[in-house]
Amino acid sequence: MNATSPNTPTTKSGVSMSDNMNAFQNAVAQFDEAAKIIGLTENQINLIKEPQKITIAKIPIRRDNGDIAIFTGLRVQHSSARGPAKGGIRFHPNVSLDEVKALAFWMTFKCAVANIPMGGAKGGVIVDPKALSPHELESLSRRYILEFSDVIGPDRDIPAPDVNTNAQIMAWMMDTFSLNKGDYLPAVITGKPIEIGGSLGRKEATSRGVFINVKMMAQHLGWTLTEKSAAVQGFGNVGSYAALFLHEAGVAVKGIADISGGYITEKKEGLNIPAMLEWVGDHGTLEGYTELGVTSPDDPMSVLEMDVDILVPAALENQITTSNAHHIKATLIAEGANGPITPNADHILFERGVHIIPDILCNSGGVTVSYLEWVQNRMGYYWTEEKVNEEMSEIMTRAINEVLKVSLARKISLRMAAFVVAIQRVLKASEIRGMYL
Known about the structure:
Layout: H1 23-38, H2 42-48, E1 53-62, E2 68-79, E3 85-92, H3 97-113, E4 119-126, H4 134-147, E5 157-161, H5 167-181, H6 205-221, E6 229-233, H7 237-248, E7 252-258, E8 261-265, H8 273-283, E9 294-298, E10 310-313, E11 332-334, H9 343-351, E12 355-357, H10 359-362, H11 365-379, H12 385-410, H13 414-433
Helix pairs in contact: 1-3, 1-13, 3-13, 4-5, 6-7, 6-11, 6-12, 11-12, 12-13
C-alpha cells in the first residue's frame, strides 16, 4: 500500500484507506486494521496474510471454425491452514490477478468466521463467455480444470461456480478431473447438478444466509421485521432470493435495482417480489417490468440512498463510497455482495451508528452449503433440503452470535469483529501446524 498522503483518510487504528484502492488493497486494509486490534506481531502477519500459491496458465481451445484461441486462467490459493482451499471460478473479461487474490483472501476468512474446516481460494478465466459457442464453453471449462489439476483436488482445493459459471460447467469440470484421475470424484467440485452429487438447497443458500443474519441482527436490535422496510441493490441469484425471504418474513421491500434500473415504491406493503422474480425468469432482467404505484426505471444507485431500515447491496463491489456514505439512511446493511462498501465508507457508516453485517459473515451461506455438499460427497450419503437448511442455519446462527459477542466486548464494528474471530482461527491453526523446514 502506498504511504498515507495528507488527503488519504485513516481509521482510528491508523490504517490508510482510499476509495481508489483495488479489491486486494481493500481486503488487505481490512486485515491490517483487525491485525492492529488483535496486536499481531510482524511474524504472525507474515504467516497468514499473503497467498500461499498463485498459479497462472495459458488455456488453449479450438474454436468452432478451427482457429486456436488462448485464454489466461488463474487460480489463487490463499490458505489451507484449516483445511483444503475453497472458492469459485469466474469467467469474465475483467478478471484480474488482484481481484482473484482479494476473493481468495476473503474466502479464507469467510470459512474461518463460519468455522468451516476449509481455507480460501479463487479462480478465473479472462474471457467473455457470451462470445463462445456452447461447444467452445465446454472446451474452455474442461481445459481449465485439466491445466490446474495438479493444484486442485478433493483434499487440496475445491472449486465452485461463480460469475458466469454454473452447475453445468461444474459438471464438465468434475467429469474431466475424474476421467483424468481414473476415479469418480464428485467431492472435487461443489455447486454441481443434483444428479451427480450436488446438494439440495444450494441455489438459495447465499440468500438464505443473508436473511438468517438479518433476522439475528433484528433480534439483537429488538426489531419486529413485519414493521421494517428494505431495499435490495442487485436482483441476480443473491439479491432476488434475499428480497423474497425478506418479503415472506413481512418486510416491506420498497426498492429493487438491477442492470436495467431502479424500481421504487411508496406502497406500505412494498413491491410484489414474487411477480418480479417471475418477470426475471421470463425476461432475464427487470427491464420492462411495470407495477401499479412503482417508479421505474430509476438510477440503480438511488436504491442505496432510500429511506428504509434494511439495505442489502447484492450487486458489485465499491458501491458505497465516501461520495454517498453520508446519504445512506438504512440502519442495518447486510452485504450480499463481496466488498460493496469501501474501507473508508465503512468507517464513516460505523461512526454514524449504522450496523453493517460484513460480507465474510453475511454472504457465507453459499460456502457453508458448498462445504455441506462436500461432506455429503465424501460420505456418499445425501440429505433432504430440510436437513441441509437446518445444518446451514445452525452454522450461520452460531457464527453471528460469536461475532456479536466480540463486537460488544471490544466495542468494534461487526466487520472488525468478524475479522478478529477469523484471523485468530487461521493464525492458531497456522501456528499449531508450524513450519516444515
